[in-house]
C-alpha cells in the first residue's frame, strides 16, 4: 500500500483499502457449520496466518502482522487515515477512474514522482469534478 498523494494541505488523508470478505448465503444448507467456519477464520491466529501467506492485511487489529513489514506499514497508514474507500476504480465515476488509474499505475511503478502524479490527478479531478473548494 502506498500513501495516496496529498492534494491539498488542509484536506484529511484518505486511503484506498480493498477488503476481501467471507459470507454465508441467506439459504445456506448447513448454516451452523458455515457460522463455525467463519468464526474460525475470524480468530487472530488464522487472520495472522492468512496475512503471512497472502500478504494481505488482516481484518483484525489484534492479529499479528509482525512477519510482514509492508503489512505493518499498511496498518499504520490506515490507522492514521480519516477514511478510506475499498476500490478506487469502482467507487469513482467511470470516466474519472479510467483516466486516473494509469496515472496511479505510473506512480506505483516509479515512472512518475509524487508531485507529478499529484499534478496529473488534480488536473483530471478538476476536469471531471470541477475546482476543489472554489479554487482552480
Report on this structure.
There is one protein chain. The protein has helices at residues 31-41, 44-54, 69-79, 88-91, 94-108, 114-129, and strands at 14-16, 83-85. It is mainly α and 136 residues long. It has a two-stranded parallel sheet. α5 runs antiparallel to α6 (114-129).
Question: How many DSSP H or I helices?
Answer: 6
Mean pLDDT, to the nearest integer, reads 81
Name the overall outline. elongated
Report the count of strand segments: 2
Major sheet size, sense and barrel closure: 2 strands, parallel
Q: Which oligomeric form is depicted?
A: single chain
Classify the beta-strand content into a percent band: under 5%
- Helix proportion: 40-55%
Order of helices and strands: EHHHEHHH
- Radius of gyration equals 19 Å
Strand order of the largest sheet: 1-2
Low-confidence stretches: none
Based on helices, strands and strand pairing, what is the structural class? Answer: mainly alpha
Any descriptors?
single chain, 136 residues, mainly alpha, two-stranded parallel ribbon, 6 helices, 2 strands
List the helices and strands and how they pair.
Layout: E1 14-16, H1 31-41, H2 44-54, H3 69-79, E2 83-85, H4 88-91, H5 94-108, H6 114-129
Parallel strand pairs: 1-2
Helix pairs in contact: 5-6
Amino acid at each position: 500500500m502506498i500513501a495516496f498523494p496529498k492534494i491539498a494541505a488542509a484536506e484529511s488523508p484518505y486511503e484506498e483499502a480493498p477488503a476481501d470478505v467471507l459470507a454465508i448465503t441467506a439459504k445456506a444448507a448447513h448454516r451452523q457449520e458455515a457460522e463455525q467456519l467463519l468464526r474460525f477464520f475470524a480468530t487472530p491466529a488464522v487472520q495472522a496466518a492468512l496475512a503471512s501467506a497472502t500478504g494481505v492485511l488482516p481484518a483484525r487489529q489484534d492479529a499479528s502482522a509482525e512477519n510482514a513489514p509492508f503489512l505493518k506499514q499498511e496498518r499504520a497508514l490506515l490507522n492514521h487515515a480519516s477514511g478510506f474507500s475499498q476500490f478506487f476504480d469502482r467507487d469513482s465515476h467511470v470516466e474519472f477512474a479510467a483516466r486516473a488509474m494509469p496515472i496511479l499505475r505510473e506512480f506505483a511503478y516509479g515512472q512518475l514522482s509524487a508531485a507529478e502524479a499529484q499534478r496529473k490527478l488534480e488536473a483530471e479531478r478538476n476536469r471531471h469534478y470541477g475546482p476543489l473548494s472554489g479554487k482552480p
